[in-house]
Q: What sequence folds into this?
């Protein structure tokens, strides 16, 4: 079930948005539910990261949409915000609150549907996938979302994760193939990185959240291309 | 005179022809790789050798048709394994064939001089064969490699093929004339002389073809650069022009304020209505204003937005212009101008105006700048070298639009990726910040 919030003060528009969501739900056979808030203040009072997508009007009395978005980002970095507006001069600054696209008023169904579809795809990306790795005395289940990078040291494989280091064995090559479609890339004969945790390039190193890892000379081009494709796919 | 000395063993000729093909295939863009390629190559060698050995004892008048057939087989070999067109494969076959003749002839002359009394298949004979073929083909490979474009495709047209084919045929006939008849003014009388003529004519032919190839390649590169330069100039001129029209809009904005004051004072309802209508139109233009924090991008987006308004295309943009501070004006214009022009041109062809959507995104992603231009898209794309080949009639210009974007991105150490998913065509550019 995907949960949507509509934050919009004008009845005309929130009725239209509701109608569009109903139509979308039926057309795509997509489980959707939504709640309506008519001002930003009221919305923020009840906000507890319970939504997946927020359709947000920019021009509202009391608290405007941009301020609402800023408040949301203070507590929730993941929810998808889509502005519904005719105030393009504000919407164009959406990058500041990670609201990467907007729907123009007057709203037409087609444009709305396409935006919503993309938002749903982005949610799909965020779903986690698990892998099992061999550890001393058994197997461990590992959430790929929490895996920063894999390091190969002789016959040992070190999984650097959010919750610490997991020691395993095996060939790094095996994981290169298995994790390719999950946004991982082998940047060096000894390292596979999670592209979501790449921060930058400091030649000849890839800057990760916690450390810098060397990049193979022949891998640089492929790495940058894969990263571009990966991030390009994720932005809506 | 013909029977005084032995001719090149047919097996060697086959080997030389095959090796020449392999050399050219190795520098071109191939269809296959790995074991599949090895398999095709091995069978090509076997077929070529069997064919030449089988036709070795035929009478002299069958010699030319059988040589022609051998050339056709070489053509098939190159055409099948590489992504060349019919004429392009033909062009490279001519080169490969002349190279094969040259190497085989050169080796045979050496053999004749050094190991006159030994069989071609003796230990020393084979050693000489391996040595000469190895060294000569390495040199040829090395020379050719320098003059093949990155993607391995030269875009040979029929005219270029026929020029090279003419050279190839002439070389073949002159070099082999003495073997057919000694009674022509160009034939040699003595063995060494005959061998010399053949090797030298082949060498001359090879050199001419090589020079021709280098020239073709240089022309191609120059042409490509010129086309890119033209596009850039075009975008830049457009930018200059629109800068003026946008200043005009700014004046209009101030005008509107005064018109409002006048409107308040107007009492005649008809005149009032006319005022309002006029203002509404003017406001529409003003809506197109984009303030991103970078004046070049603002101007560019505004100007493209006006084109979009004219064509009922909905353009939305989220852009942090600050990120472009260190980028050259011409480069900004190249990237956004070309990408948006392509998108706009495509959207104009979409029948329902509701579906004409373009979205521009420019944002910081960690220590990178990400630029993304996407448009709604119906249909299929063909890809060429990782970039889509154009659906436009004016194939050349369009392809260069995307190529110049890539060129510009690479200048800043970045890359371009083009994807298409669920009816959205996306150009994503990622440029790392220098840390």
A:
């Amino acid at each position: 079930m995907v949960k949507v919030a509509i934050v919009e003060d004008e009845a005309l528009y929130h009725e239209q948005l509701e109608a569009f969501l109903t139509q979308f739900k039926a057309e795509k056979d997509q489980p959707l539910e939504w709640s309506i808030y008519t001002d930003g203040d009221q919305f923020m009072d009840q906000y507890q990261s319970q939504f997946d997508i927020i359709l947000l009007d920019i021009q509202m009395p009391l608290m405007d949409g941009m301020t609402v978005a800023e408040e949301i980002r203070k507590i929730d970095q993941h929810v998808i915000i889509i502005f519904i507006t005719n105030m393009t001069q504000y919407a164009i600054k959406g990058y500041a609150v990670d609201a990467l696209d907007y729907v123009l008023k007057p709203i037409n169904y087609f444009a709305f549907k396409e935006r919503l579809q993309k938002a749903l795809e982005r949610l799909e990306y965020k779903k986690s996938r698990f892998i099992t790795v061999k550890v001393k005395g058994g197997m461990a289940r590992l959430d790929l979302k929490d895996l920063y990078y894999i390091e190969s040291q002789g016959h040992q494989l070190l999984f650097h994760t959010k919750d610490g280091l997991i020691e395993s064995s095996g060939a790094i090559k095996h994981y290169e193939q298995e994790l390719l479609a999950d946004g991982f890339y082998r940047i060096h004969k000894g390292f596979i990185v999670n592209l979501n945790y790449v921060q930058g390039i400091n030649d000849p190193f890839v800057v990760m959240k916690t450390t810098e890892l060397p990049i193979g000379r022949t891998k640089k081009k492929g790495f940058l291309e894969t990263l571009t494709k990966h991030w390009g796919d994720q932005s809506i | 005179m013909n029977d005084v000395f032995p001719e090149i063993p047919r097996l060697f000729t086959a080997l030389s022809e095959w090796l020449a093909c392999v050399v050219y295939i190795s520098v071109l863009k191939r269809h296959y790789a790995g074991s599949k390629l090895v398999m095709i190559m091995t069978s090509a060698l076997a077929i070529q050798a069997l064919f030449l050995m089988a036709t070795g004892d035929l009478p002299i008048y069958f010699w030319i048709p059988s040589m022609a057939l051998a050339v056709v087989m070489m053509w098939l070999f190159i055409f099948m394994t590489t992504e060349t067109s019919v004429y392009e494969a033909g062009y490279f076959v001519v080169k490969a064939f002349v190279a094969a003749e040259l190497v085989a002839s050169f080796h045979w002359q050496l053999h004749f001089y050094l190991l006159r009394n030994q069989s071609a298949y003796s230990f020393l004979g084979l050693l000489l064969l391996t040595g000469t073929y190895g060294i000569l083909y390495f040199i040829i490979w090395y020379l050719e490699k320098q003059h093949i474009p990155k993607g391995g495709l030269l875009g040979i047209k029929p005219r270029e093929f026929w020029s090279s084919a003419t050279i190839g045929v002439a070389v073949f006939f002159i070099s082999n004339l003495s073997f057919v008849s000694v009674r022509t003014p160009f034939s040699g009388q003595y063995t060494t002389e005959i061998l010399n003529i053949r090797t030298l004519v082949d060498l001359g032919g090879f050199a001419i073809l090589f020079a021709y190839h280098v020239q073709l390649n240089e022309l191609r590169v120059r042409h490509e650069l010129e086309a890119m330069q033209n596009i850039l100039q075009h975008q830049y001129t457009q930018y200059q022009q629109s800068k003026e029209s946008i200043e005009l809009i700014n004046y209009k904005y101030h005008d509107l304020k005064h018109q409002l004051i006048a409107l308040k004072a107007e009492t005649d309802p008809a005149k009032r209505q006319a005022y309002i209508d006029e203002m509404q139109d003017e406001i529409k233009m003003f809506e197109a204003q984009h303030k991103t924090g970078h004046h070049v991008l603002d101007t560019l987006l505004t100007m493209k937005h006006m084109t979009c308004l004219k064509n009922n295309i909905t353009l939305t943009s989220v852009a942090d212009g600050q990120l472009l501070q260190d980028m050259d004006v011409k480069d900004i214009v190249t990237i956004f101008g070309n990408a948006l022009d392509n998108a706009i041109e495509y959207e104009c062809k979409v029948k329902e105006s509701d579906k004409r959507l373009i979205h521009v995104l420019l944002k910081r992603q960690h220590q990178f700048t990400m630029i993304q231009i996407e448009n709604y898209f119906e249909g299929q794309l063909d890809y060429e070298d990782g970039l889509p080949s154009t659906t436009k009639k004016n194939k050349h210009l369009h392809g260069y639009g995307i190529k110049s974007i890539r060129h510009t991105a690479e200048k800043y150490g970045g890359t371009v990726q083009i994807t298409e998913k669920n009816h959205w065509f996306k150009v994503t550019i990622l440029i790392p910040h220098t840390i």
Observations:
- The radius of gyration of chain A is 21 Å.
